[in-house]
Amino acid sequence: MLASALETYESWDLKKLSIPSRSRLYQLQPVGIGTPLVESLTGYISRLAEAHCVTPKALISRELVSFIPKTYKTTNLFEMRSLTGALNGIGTMALDLVTVLESLTLRSDLRFLSLLTWAGIFPQRRLLRARRAWCPYCYEEWYSSKDKVIYEPLIWFFEAVKFCHWHNQSLCQQCPHCQRQLPPLASYSRPGYCPYCLEWLGVTDNYPFSDKALPSKEEIIWQKWVIKTIGELIANTPHLPKPLQREIVAQAFCRYVNQFTEGNTAAFARMLDIPKNKVWMWQMGKVLPELNVILKICFTLQVSVLDFFTQETVKENYSQSPAIPQNQLGDSITKKLEVKFDSDRTQQLLEDLLQNNQQPLPMTVVAKRLGYPKRILYRHFPELCRAISAQYVKYMKESRIKRIEQCCEEVKQAVKQFYTEGIYPSEAAISRLLAKPGCFRDKEVRNALRAARREIGLEP
Ligand SMILES: [Zn+2]
Ligand SMILES: [Zn+2]
User: Which InterPro entries is this protein grouped with (predicted)?
Assistant: First the structure.
């Protein structure tokens, strides 16, 4: 037989294939990680149970319980219905459950379905609500769409969030069929359904929408801002290099007190309409303010909660495509993701600012004026930004020295004036006379007072 007539058959490759390790539970993809509409951990458990065709109770009692180390075993978990909200939060319950679920699904991103990353920053009080809240219109929309998943967004659990930003409707907190309030996770939980009467929670005739008083214009503006800033916060959680530490709260307050009121805590507190000692305690890091308070402060300062705490800590990492379509994101956030960066023009403007240094500005204000987040400016022009910032710090230092010198001089004059009028030159009396009454917080000014009194023999 001729060699050319022989056919070569495919040979077997006997090399061993590398088989990735198998997960005990399905590696179900969470919805919307890295977006404002990220899924909640309790909602994920309901979906995971549904994917395995079991109830959450069965999933937890048969699979998870033996790995949960603490006293709250399965049966207890469902008895503590209102506490199941803690699973989305910042405490050990959330941490234990995330650890177990991550090891059983071999996923490493489930912590972003809770607020664990923010555990060092926010106190538990009034952070998340103890009962479920939902938008029936969102459920209805996801139900009738072929490619959308019905799930429970984390943002619905925030106590401060009362609205659905996308449908301009108040979130519902009572089943329209059995009139009960629903725990975040129950034995028969299923996204979009009541775990008690098992009825659908999307739009039905049973909802008493018309009974509700319409929200005021101010309430709508406030809620839209709250949703936008909380959305930004949870969307950026996966981009943070590490969980934030408690110290950054005090640092943030010090930074903003310096920036807005030149280090005057009392003036800063007055501006925000908050007692001075509270602001001082936050500045010293002795107490953490609740999220509701932070929201009000940030709203007044017109800065997002994320920027308030992180400044340059957040990595600009928007290149990851969101798991949910863009049209489900808030308008403003979508715009932010798509913003185009005009490099040449920005560089020119930054250079101009650096040269025209009559009144240097802090980088936060520069960023606001140029219309880009500060971290983007730092990423593109680190040296220019650092130079502008250094110029501002130098200017602030010099202004402080000038201000103190002026105060010392005024104090000296005031002491002399009181002496000739036969009045004791007390700190309170002089404060009333001065242009800047708060100036005695500087030790240099207090020393000047002592020296002036000493000169006229009132102090040893
Ligand atoms: Zn909605
Ligand atoms: Zn019901």
Answer: TniQ
